[in-house]
Every structure is written in structure tokens, then in C-alpha cells.
Amino acid sequence: FWLKPLQESLPNPAKMVVKGLKKKVVVKGKKQMLKFTIDCQQPADDNIIEAKDFEKFLTNRIKVDGKTGNLGDKVTITREKSAKINVSAEAPFSKRYLKYLSKKYLKMQQLRDFLRVVAPNKTSYELRYFNINEDNEED
């Protein structure tokens, strides 16, 4: 009878949980595919860049597991029509990395001063011209 209040005040070891410690649940089965598009329609129509060259640049430069030229089955790059490039990848791949590589390509082609990389939606980028207003009126 005198042990009962003591036992109730002690925490149950089965209920004790360390905060911040959670089990990582690994779900096996269908792998998550990420799909991104880069639309270079405007500059390609003006013959400023070749989508074929841009696709080749991405194929050579994208790193998988820290190595270039190691795309394998994890990353696929395809070109739609004349100027849309699709990049499909398994989970560890960022959209930001595609923007970085796109800027690098523009810099290499010396087009970085005229074109910029814009994200119109969550899964795509677009190469657009800078809006340069030449209506500078001087008094």
C-alpha cells in the first residue's frame, strides 16, 4: 500500500521517449521522379542559342554522386520540339542546380548580359531577355 503512490509518480520506462529522436522510415517501392523543364524558345527562335548545344552541355556537366558524365538511369535529358529541354531525375536533384548550370552555359556563350533564367512555375525555368528600356530622356 505504501509502494503504490511511489510507483504512480515514477514514469513508465515504456512511455519514456527521448525528444528529437525519431526513427527514419524508408519506404521501398516506387521511386520519386522529379521532372524539370527549361524553355529556351525565345532565344532559339532568334538563333542566339542552339537547344542541341545546351542539351549537350547539361549532359556533360550534370553531376550524379559527385561525378560528371555519370548520368546512368538516374537522370535523363530530352529535348522537345526545338527548344524545350526536359530533365527527369530520381529524388536527390535540385531545380536550383539546373539554374546554376543554365547560368554557367549563358556565361560560357557570353550571353549572360542579355538573357536571364526565370522560374515561371514550380517545375520549370525559362530563358528570357532582359527588359532594357532605351527611352532614357535627358533634360
Automatic annotation (TrEMBL):
Q: Which GO terms describe its molecular function?
A: RNA binding; structural constituent of ribosome
Keyword terms of this UniProt record:
Ribonucleoprotein, Ribosomal protein
One Gene Ontology CC term in the entry: cytoplasm
Family from the record: Belongs to the eukaryotic ribosomal protein eL22 family.
Which top-rank group of organisms is this from? Answer: Eukaryota
Q: Which GO terms describe its biological process?
A: cytoplasmic translation
- Cross-referenced InterPro entries: Ribosomal_eL22, Ribosomal_eL22_sf
Name a Pfam family for this protein. Answer: Ribosomal_L22e
Enumerate the PANTHER family for this protein.
60S RIBOSOMAL PROTEIN L22, FI24544P1-RELATED
Q: What is this protein called?
A: Large ribosomal subunit protein eL22
